[in-house]
């Protein structure tokens, strides 16, 4: 899987690309690299009691890595 980060937002590489007036279906990795797409590394989230895990993307060297952060679950008090 390939993707890129544009202004902090993740974008998957498309299955079809129009380049120099030609339609390229299922572009090869070397071509995607030339267009600025990078390999994507998916990771597992861990669990933390009372928190929800939220993923985000970060560029690390020559790849984009899925990272995780935890946000506390706020419960409303019942009246």
Concise summary:
The protein is mainly beta and 79 residues long.
Question: What this model shows, in words?
Answer:
The protein has 79 residues and is mainly β. It has one domain (2-72). It is 8% helix and 52% strand. The chain is built from one helix and seven strands. The strands form two sheets. It has a five-stranded mixed beta sheet. It is elongated, with a radius of gyration of 18 Å. The model has no long low-confidence stretch (mean pLDDT 91).
- Count of beta strands: 7
Gross morphology: elongated
Topology as a string of helices (H) and strands (E): EEEEHEEE
End-to-end distance, in Å? 49 Å
Radius of gyration from the alpha-carbon trace, in angstroms: 18 Å
Mean pLDDT: 91
Strand order of the largest sheet: 2-1-5-7-6
**What is the percentage of strand-forming residues?**
over 45%
What is the number of independent domains? 1
Oligomer: single chain
Write the layout of secondary structure elements.
Blueprint: E1 2-6, E2 9-12, E3 16-19, E4 22-25, H1 29-34, E5 38-41, E6 51-60, E7 63-72
Parallel strand pairs: 5-7
Antiparallel strand pairs: 1-2, 1-5, 3-4, 6-7
């Amino acid at each position: 899987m390939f993707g890129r980060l544009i202004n902090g937002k993740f974008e998957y590489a498309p299955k079809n690309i129009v380049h120099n007036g030609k339609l390229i279906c299922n572009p090869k990795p070397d071509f995607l690299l030339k267009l600025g797409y990078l390999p994507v590394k998916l990771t597992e989230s861990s669990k933390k009691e009372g928190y929800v895990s939220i993923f985000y993307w970060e560029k690390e060297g020559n790849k984009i890595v899925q990272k995780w952060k935890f946000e506390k679950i706020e419960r409303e008090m019942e009246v």
